[in-house]
């Protein structure tokens, strides 16, 4: 058992970690319904606080509130103090292990923990040291669900870390978490919500915060919980919650908690330091690029299935338009082929949307834990996608370009491939934006398809710009549709300098086809 809470420790607990206190904490959602109702408590370094209660009592909401992760539609009232100060947790100084952790499924356990260590640990540590720390974490956690816990944060929040585990595995995981309290001579503040723990797991905690219907039923040492409930007549009648809440409010334990909070608040420690614990920006970009590249190469749905579909369809296109020649009718065939290739390659990008959503889940979790920022994620994701997009543009582009006999000359071919590559890069970025705004992959596919369909429609191929209605469709949609610029570039690349028989003239002659500005 960790040592009990006493007031005689002086400032010792303030030297290692960060203390949290909350007083008269209320959380309400839209409509005025209260989730948390006047909660009061504290968490100190070197101790393990258990938040318990039935489903829906507010355990996760309390964790979210203390960690500063409440959603936008909730309102918070009351005081949350860190080291006796009214301040927010500095970026990267705390970690939150969610109940449903988001991980990259294509990575092995070793790779997932290793990349996490590279992102979180400072550049002052060498790569072998980071690798050794990651492997030590894997061994300590026994490859369980809690293996991705932050290695060295001070405030640590865990939402039901034993969910889905049997009693033996739960005890092993919680015992390793409890050992973090004093690991490496650092006393950490650990707060965990837990549902129906075994007696052995329950005894690992220092303090207990028991909630029901958003109210505090009990807050105090684990060792005193049985005595408190026994004094209040368990087994209890139906109105046990109200009895316990009133009894707790009038008990000596409640008064002791109030005095403890007042004492902690008086011992005002320094402001929470916003120390730089993460790797540098370029190191983050390097690690994220490498990790994302491995994920993309192993996830068949990311690019490989699309590449297979592109190649299959390109073979069909090359067969259908094979040897289209240079007669007058080939003008329409060349334009149709070019338009279809651009539209189809970009439109099929929505096929990778489910993978984008999974990436966004991992990014959101790691960003909130301070591993890296938005810029590093965008750079890493973009750089890792470049080889795959180049492959997707080059192979189907070659199959589509040469069998039909499009404009000869490798400079024209490489310009054709470059335009396809840039278009897919643009659409990939567009899909990432949609994924960040619409987290549901089904709705994201619908939104992404709708946006691309609109861009293709007003791109100038189906209707000339002069025929488009000016409100909205021409101004501004026609001018912001990237398909417009792709069509214009490829049409100019294809037709400029070529000659076609002037069949309509009736004289059997031929003339150079002028390329008009679109």
From TrEMBL:
The chain crosses the membrane at residues 303-325, 337-357, 377-401, 413-435, 441-464. Keywords: ATP-binding, Membrane, Nucleotide-binding, Transmembrane, Transmembrane helix, Transport. It is found in: Membrane. Its main location: membrane. Residues 20-238 form the ABC transporter domain. One of its GO terms (molecular function) is ATP binding. InterPro entries: AAA+_ATPase (IPR003593), ABC2_TM (IPR013525), ABC_transporter-like_ATP-bd (IPR003439), ABCG_dom (IPR043926), P-loop_NTPase (IPR027417), Plant_ABCG (IPR052215). It is a multi-pass membrane protein. SMART domains: AAA. One of its GO terms (cellular component) is membrane. Belongs to the ABC transporter superfamily. ABCG family. Eye pigment precursor importer (TC 3.A.1.204) subfamily. This is ABC transporter G family member 11.
């Amino acid at each position: 058992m960790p040592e009990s809470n006493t007031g005689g420790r002086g400032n010792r607990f303030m030297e290692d970690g960060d203390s949290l206190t909350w007083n008269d904490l209320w959380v309400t959602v839209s409509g005025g319904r209260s989730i948390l109702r006047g909660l009061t408590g504290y968490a100190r370094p070197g101790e393990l606080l258990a938040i318990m209660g039935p489903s829906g009592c507010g355990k996760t909401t309390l964790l979210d509130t203390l960690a500063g992760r409440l959603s936008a539609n909730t309102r918070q009232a009351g005081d949350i103090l860190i080291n006796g100060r009214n301040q927010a947790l500095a970026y990267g100084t705390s970690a939150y292990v969610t109940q449903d952790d988001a991980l990259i499924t294509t990575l092995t356990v070793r790779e997932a923990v290793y990349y996490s260590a590279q992102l979180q640990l400072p550049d002052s540590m060498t790569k072998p040291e980071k690798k050794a720390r990651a492997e030590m974490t894997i061994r300590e956690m026994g490859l369980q669900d809690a293996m991705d816990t932050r290695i060295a944060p001070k405030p640590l929040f865990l939402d039901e870390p034993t969910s889905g585990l049997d009693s033996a595995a739960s005890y092993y995981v919680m015992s390793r978490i409890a050992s973090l309290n004093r690991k490496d001579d650092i006393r950490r503040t650990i707060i965990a919500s837990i549902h129906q723990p075994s007696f052995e797991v329950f005894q690992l905690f220092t303090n207990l915060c028991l909630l029901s219907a958003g109210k505090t039923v009990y807050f105090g040492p684990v060792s005193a919980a049985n005595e408190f409930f026994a004094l209040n007549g368990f087994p209890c009648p139906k109105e046990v919650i109200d009895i316990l809440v009133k009894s707790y409010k009038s008990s000596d334990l409640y008064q002791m908690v109030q005095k403890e909070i007042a004492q902690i608040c008086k011992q005002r420690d320094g402001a929470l330091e916003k120390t730089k614990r993460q790797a540098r920006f370029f190191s983050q970009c390097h690690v994220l690029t490498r990790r994302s590249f491995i994920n993309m190469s192993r996830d068949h749905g990311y690019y490989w299935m699309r590449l297979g579909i592109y190649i299959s369809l390109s073979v069909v296109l090359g067969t259908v338009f094979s040897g289209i020649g240079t007669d007058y009718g080939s003008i329409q065939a060349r334009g149709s082929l070019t338009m279809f290739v651009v539209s189809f390659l970009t439109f099929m990008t929505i096929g990778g949307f489910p993978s984008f959503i999974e990436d966004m889940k991992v990014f959101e979790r790691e960003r909130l834990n301070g591993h890296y920022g938005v810029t590093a994620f965008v750079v890493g994701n973009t750089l890792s996608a470049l080889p795959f997009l180049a492959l997707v543009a080059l192979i189907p582009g070659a199959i589509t370009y040469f069998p039909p006999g499009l404009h000869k000359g490798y400079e024209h071919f490489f310009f054709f491939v470059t335009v396809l590559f840039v278009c897919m890069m643009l659409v990939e970025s567009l899909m990432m934006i949609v994924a960040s705004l619409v987290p549901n992959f089904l709705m994201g596919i619908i939104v992404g398809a709708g946006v691309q369909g609109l861009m293709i429609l007003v791109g100038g191929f189906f209707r000339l710009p002069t025929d488009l209605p000016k409100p909205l469709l021409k101004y501004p949609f026609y001018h912001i549709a990237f398909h417009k610029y792709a069509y214009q570039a490829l049409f100019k690349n294809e037709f400029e300098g070529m000659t076609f028989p002037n069949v309509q003239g009736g004289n059997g002659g031929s003339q150079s086809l002028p390329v008009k500005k679109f």
